[in-house]
Amino acid sequence: MKKITLLFGLISMISFGQINVDFEPGGEGASWSWIVDDNGTNPPALEIVANPNAAGINTSTTVAKFIATEGGQPWALTYTDNIGSFAFSENNSIVKFKVRKDIPTPVGIKFENTNVPPPYPSRIVEVANTQVNGNWEELTFDFSIAIGETFNRMVIIPDFYDRSIDTTIYFDDISFNAGGNVANYNLEDIDFESPGFGADWVWTVHNNNTNPALEFVPNPNTSGINSTSTVAKFTSLNFGAAWALTFTDYVGTFTFDQNNKIVTLMVNKSVISDVGVKFEVAGTGTHVQLVKPNTVTNGNWEQLTFDFSDQIGNTYNRLVIIPDFAERTQNNVSYFDQLSFGSTAGLNDNLFNAVKMFPNPAKDFVQFSKNSNEQLAIEIFDVLGKSLIKVKNVQDEVNISILQTGVYVVQMTLGTKATTKKLVVN
Fold first, then answer.
1. Domain for residue 75, yes or no?
2. Which among 63, 139, 153, 231 could disulfide-bond with 337, CB atoms 3.0 to 4.6 Å apart, if both were Cys?
């Protein structure tokens, strides 16, 4: 296992994949320097106290105690640089963390690299607790997307919530475990299927009051233009902000170009309101956002198109979805699915809905289905634009065994209409 240098008053070699911040005498964490910030008057230090409930899953003697004050920011936090400089790998990218809280609100863990000028490169994952009965609960934070990235500061946001009273949170046993099961993503359709992309990603909910997690549920209507099995469900809460959102960094770093400048998204909503699609450079404030209202509210799916042609050449690494961009007086449920990147301005929704390509990623064979009597032709190009496979009349399955592992562009022509999608070959 890879060894890294950690600073605990003196330099020692510790296997980072095995470290456990347990706040015990002689252990890790209790003697570290913890800075409290954005917490009103900022109590001078994180407290290390006796475990208030040594039964159940946490029988340790001492734990950390954080009081999130009424006058503090929702992101009231404590941080330490004693974690030392380290890189996430497959051996340490799953972070586990025990909490004892009185209300169910998100807990955030953030890692920053302060060795470069601000704004510091960072990664944050938020997970809400569900236990509020005085018992300990272990939360899991997946930092697989950060594998290969280096950090030297750990930030804990124990009560990521706009609170009206002081709240007390206990936390303990921060451990780093093997993980790293993240499929390579190259702007394929985000379809929430298995296999597929989206359902296994980390999606963080913000600005939505208690920030209930994004859910992945059976498609509520498979009879229309969206016949997929699984979709995303977002509940915009009455007391959430108009811009209640969910975001993921698992889209990776990409640059808009002629082949991916058009983004389409299927939605199924109970009210008419704007839907926002936003791309950010995480941690910098740089972003681009487009909004478009849905027009259907009868339980049917609708495809919305967002034209990012003016962003060609710009690079982003975070995807944000705002499903119900409006002030509301009730909880509103929105389903979304099939986020696709394409090349044609003014895409014909019927074409995107009429032709499906699967599986993706694929090996040896790829299948096509269409709900039209028009002839389907496909042509597969490499990333340099060289035509490798051309089929004038696709019936069902196309043999792609001549293709090497990599990313390709598939042009699909149905009648007189054409569009392109990316294909990954394993």
1. yes
2. 231
